[in-house]
Amino acid sequence: ALKAVHLKEDIEWKGDVFAPLVKDADLSIRAGDDLRVIQGGDCIGLARAVAAGWEWSGTPGTLGKSHQRKKKQ
To answer: CA 68 to CA 66: how far, in whole Å?
Structure first.
């Protein structure tokens, strides 16, 4: 199973994953891991980690590169 990153529910995910968007992330994430992007309990896409899990709690810059997103209905 893929590791997951949970985004805050009051934001709209438009591009890459940045720290201000993140509500919670798996600390065992390693750079290069594919991740499920979860928001409000739903998987809304996939991203590839560019930083380790311990950096996801506030490191500035891109933490994950979006490579697949669920289309809005």
So the answer is: 6
